[in-house]
């Protein structure tokens, strides 16, 4: 066999394997366990069903939104396009003067160590997660308050998969996938021209998003760093300083791990009555449609939340070897289950009375699954709070991102933020749009 013929055969085999993974999942429900959604403070989590080296993959094609099309919105609310024609907008940050900053960035193909990695890369391209990364931050300014920005400028470019943003005084911070960088900021400027100063190095790859959140006293940044892998299958050494929220001291430049065992903690927000830090976390794959659930939780200084050894209420993941019973025994049970594989990423506190029919609570952007037999997420939900704790079941704010047959998606919500005028802004990366939600 010639070299070219051998290469062609390899390509055919790989493509056939990928097609098998995808078509196997898209054909209908498989071995996913109990299909009932797992939500709330006391979820009934189905027993784990290991999917081995053939985990469920189900992927909608991304079709995008028509010019006059919007997501479905809850009764009493209105949704409009704040900005269309973005380039994979992932995260939103609102400056004190009302300017809206949007990080445009995208995933890169993952490291290929086995055939399953090829299939995963194929799937992530199909759902619009892997594409050319714009690596920049866009400024949107709605000076007249009509809900449509008159100014759209490149605020900062030449970045490395930027995500989290924060302003403290006259310094603007960016969370690149490999670093936290500080830039000089002038109030009202539409572009940063000064050189950046690196404050913290991080390991890139894997869960690459690096969100930033400012401490109450404005002296520290909380930095979310996701795991490299699903369950540390590339070795525990590769996961050192990952699957954690770090605390970066802005005066000294020193950092420490604030909380660990959080597979992929992204969105962060303060609950105002208690002052506690909360986050949303994406859990592991390959144990069933609803096992384990993604979750919303308060974050305790020094707390350990289970990954990779266990999940939820100290349920051991037997796939992780060697086990660590002592660490499992110290793990904290999360506060609130959000359903399996919803990819809950965005998080923002919604003050009472902001949106019609919704009280005080957390708004969560659910990017949506690609690894279960019936898709989940693909919506923006609200979890009410009472006396500083989650109360009741999630309620939809935005939905309709998926077609009824789950074969296509118009977009995928990610970051959420409260604008200066009290509207809710939602970054839709696959739909290349920033949505604006207000009371009707």
Description:
This protein is mostly beta strands and 440 residues long. It has one domain: TolB, C-terminal domain (Neuraminidase, 6 Propeller), CATH 2.120.10. Helices cover 9% and strands 33% of the residues. It is built from three helices and 31 strands. It has helices spanning 3-26, 115-126, 325-329; strands spanning 39-40, 61-62, 72-73, 77-83, 89-94, 100-104, 136-141, 151-156, 165-168, 171-175, 179-184, 197-201, 212-214, 220-225, 244-249, 255-260, 265-270, 277-281, 295-298, 310-311, 315-316, 336-338, 344-350, 361-366, 379-386, 389-390, 395-399, 408-409, 413-418, 424-428, 433-439. The strands form eight sheets. Strands 3, 23, 24, 25, 26 and 27 form a six-stranded antiparallel beta sheet that branches. A five-stranded antiparallel beta sheet has the order 1-22-19-18-17, with no helix packed on it. Strands 4-31-30-29 form a four-stranded antiparallel beta sheet, with no helix packed on it. The radius of gyration is 21 Å and the shape is globular.
């Amino acid at each position: 066999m010639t070299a070219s013929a051998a290469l062609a055969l390899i390509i055919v085999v790989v493509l056939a394997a990928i097609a098998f993974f995808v078509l196997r999942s898209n054909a209908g429900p498989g071995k996913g366990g109990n299909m009932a959604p797992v939500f709330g403070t006391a979820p009934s989590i189905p027993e784990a069903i290991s999917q081995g080296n053939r985990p469920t993959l189900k992927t909608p094609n991304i079709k995008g939104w028509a010019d006059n099309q919007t997501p479905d919105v809850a009764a009493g609310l209105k949704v409009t396009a704040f900005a269309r024609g973005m380039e994979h907008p992932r995260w939103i940050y609102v400056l004190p003067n009302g300017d809206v900053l949007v990080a445009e960035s995208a995933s890169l193909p993952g490291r290929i160590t086995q055939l399953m990695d090829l299939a995963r890369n194929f799937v992530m391209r199909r759902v619009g997660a892997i594409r050319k990364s714009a690596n920049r931050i866009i400024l949107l300014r709605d000076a007249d308050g009509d809900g449509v920005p008159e100014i759209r400028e490149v605020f900062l470019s030449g970045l490395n998969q930027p995500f989290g943003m924060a302003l403290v005084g006259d310094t603007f911070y960016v969370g690149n996938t490999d670093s936290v960088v500080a830039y000089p900021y002038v109030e009202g400027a539409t572009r940063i021209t000064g050189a950046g100063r690196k404050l913290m190095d991080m390991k890139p790859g894997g869960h690459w998003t690096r969100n930033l959140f400012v401490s109450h006293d404005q002296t520290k940044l909380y930095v979310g760093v996701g795991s490299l892998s699903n369950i540390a299958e590339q070795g525990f050494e590769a996961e050192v300083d990952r699957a954690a929220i770090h605390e970066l001291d802005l005066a000294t430049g020193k950092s420490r791990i604030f909380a660990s065992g959080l597979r992929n903690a992204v969105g962060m927000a303060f609950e105002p009555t208690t002052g506690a830090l909360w986050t949303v976390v994406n859990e592991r794959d390959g144990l069933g449609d609803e096992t384990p659930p993604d979750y919303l939780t308060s974050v305790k200084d020094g707390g350990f939340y289970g990954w990779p050894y266990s999940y939820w209420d100290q349920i051991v993941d037997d796939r992780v070897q060697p086990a660590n019973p002592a660490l499992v025994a110290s793990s904290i049970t999360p506060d609130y289950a959000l359903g399996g594989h919803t990819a809950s990423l965005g998080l923002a506190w919604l003050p009472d009375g902001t949106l019609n029919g919704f009280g005080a609570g957390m708004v969560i952007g659910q990017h949506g699954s690609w690894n279960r037999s019936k898709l989940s997420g693909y919506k923006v939900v609200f979890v009410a709070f009472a006396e500083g704790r989650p109360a009741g079941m999630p309620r939809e704010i935005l939905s309709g991102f998926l077609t009824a047959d789950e074969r296509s998606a118009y977009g995928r919500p990610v970051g959420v933020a409260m604008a200066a005028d009290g509207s809710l802004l939602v970054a839709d990366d696959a739909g290349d749009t920033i949505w604006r939600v207000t009371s009707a």
